[in-house]
Design goal:
By secondary structure, the chain is an alpha+beta fold. It has 17 helices and 16 strands. The structure holds adenosine monophosphate.
Length: 442
């Protein structure tokens, strides 16, 4: 019998459904940091004049192929693309910028006001090799600004990111910035790059060679160590900037300097997407083992036009939400949950019914109230109140109802008072709110 049970047990375990590789649940026990980040980010975005936008998770594949670029790691290897039942080619969004640009154009937002600032928070999907800080469904906090060419916006976005990370208690971050130039200065850079690559051809991987004709800039993204070595002294966009791009980048740098923000000019930073022009940046951390980017952004002055809209300068960034939370976990910034305000111990059917209505009214008023509907004994209900760290326990049994004297016990001081039913809920709201204020003051 025992053996049979054991066998059944194993069979049962084998059948338990699991998440897909690279996908994960974020459990209630982990959520407080996520919520804290979201709250701080939204507060800051609103202060800087951003409005939330919500975009679909699924888009036409073409949108990403045209914006991110056909010959990029994301489009070539990482997108979750499939045909739906009608044969339409669709993709789970691997990033937010393309969809926000699509939305800006589709709704002709530029006709009302070409200057628009958006933020969005949500999941992205890339079929990368899963490891710590890298998932196949991951979350980004994304910001985009349309209609402003001025370099002050570039600096302001880096300033905003820095402010958010400061508020969240992060230290040890480094901002790497670069300028990728514009269509004016790109051709001379590309020529120099191609000449250089030609001279290193025999040391490059097959993928790099394939990209030589199609998109030589992407060769600079290659992660293979031998290719990186061969490309160590490759020409940099910074050395080929036209006067306008050079002036633009100078303003970004001097503004950041004047604001006291540290940064490293990193000539090798190219970012993995095709649409970037001029300023590009990454905020890196060493807190997750090897140096990794916790946020990245850049200007994309050509993308709105490329996707069918009017010529509109634009710039944005994305924060890796999962990585941000992982860094915060390390510095132990988990906010403590506010304890339960009130636990209602209802004994008997009549008290259960009264307790139910009281608890709903209290919840409605923002008081965190719990009760137990399983008809448990006084002793086990008091245990549960303790487990939930209830600040107060309301005790309503048949006697208390009959005598119209409901007992309220302060679980910290152990003091008890009797309350009449007539004015019970407003009285409880008053007491619990005072207590919440005291907790928040401490
Ligand atoms: P990107 O859109 O590639 O510029 O990425 C912006 C940020 O998203 C990066 O700096 C990372 O922090 C984060 N990120 C990108 N890919 C992943 C991933 N697969 N898993 C977790 N975070 C990611």
């Amino acid at each position: 019998m025992f053996i049979l049970n054991l066998a059944n047990n194993f069979k049962y375990k084998e059948n338990i459904m699991q998440t897909i590789r690279g996908f994960r649940d974020i459990l209630p026990e982990q959520i407080s940091l996520w919520q804290k980040v979201e709250k701080e980010a939204i507060l800051l975005f609103e202060a800087f004049g951003f409005k939330e936008i919500r975009i679909p998770i699924l888009e036409k594949t073409e949108l990403f192929a045209r914006s991110i670029g056909e010959v990029t790691d994301i489009v070539e290897k990482e997108m979750y693309t499939f045909e739906d039942r009608k044969g339409d080619k669709l993709t789970l969004r691997p990033e937010a910028t393309a969809s926000i640009v699509r939305s800006y154009i589709q709704h002709k937002m530029y006709t009302i006001d070409p200057v628009r600032k958006f933020y969005m928070i949500g999941p992205m999907f890339r079929r990368e090799r899963p490891q710590k800080g890298r998932y196949r469904q991951f979350y980004q906090i994304d910001a985009e600004v349309f209609g402003i060419e001025s370099a002050y916006i570039d600096s302001q976005l880096i300033f905003l990111l820095n402010e958010l990370f400061k508020r969240l208690g992060l230290t040890g971050l480094s901002a790497h910035i670069n300028s990728l130039g514009c269509p004016e200065c790109r051709p001379s850079f590309q020529k120099a790059l191609l000449d250089f690559i030609e001279s290193k051809k025999d040391r490059l991987c097959e993928n790099c060679l394939r990209r030589m004709d199609k998109n030589p800039l992407r060769i600079l993204d290659c992660k293979i160590a031998d290719c990186r070595k061969a490309l160590a002294n490759a020409p940099a966009t910074l050395d080929y900037l036209c006067n306008d791009c050079s002036d633009h980048f100078d303003i970004v740098k001097t503004t950041l300097e004047k604001q006291g923000l540290d940064f490293i000019v990193d000539k090798s930073l190219v970012r993995g997407l095709d649409y970037y022009t001029r300023t590009a940046w990454e905020i890196q951390t060493t807190a997750l083992g090897a140096q990794s980017a916790i946020a990245g952004g850049g200007r994309y002055d050509g993308l709105v036009k490329e996707l069918g809209g009017p010529q509109t300068p634009a710039i944005g960034f994305a924060i890796g939400f999962d990585r941000l939370v992982e860094v915060m976990e390390q510095i132990d910034k988990t906010p403590e949950d506010r304890p339960l305000d009130l636990f209602i111990v209802s004994l008997g059917d009549a008290a259960m019914e009264k307790g139910y209505h009281w608890s709903c009214e209290l919840n409605q008023a923002g008081i965190r109230t719990e009760m137990d509907f399983r008809g448990k004994s006084m002793k086990s209900l008091m245990k549960r109140a303790d487990k939930l760290s209830a600040q107060y326990v309301l005790i309503a049994g048949e006697n208390e109802l009959m005598e119209n004297a409901i007992v309220l016990r302060n679980m910290n001081t152990k003091e008890q008072v009797s309350l009449a039913m007539e004015n019970l809920v407003p009285e409880l709201i008053k007491i619990c709110k005072n207590n919440i204020e005291e907790i928040l003051r401490d």
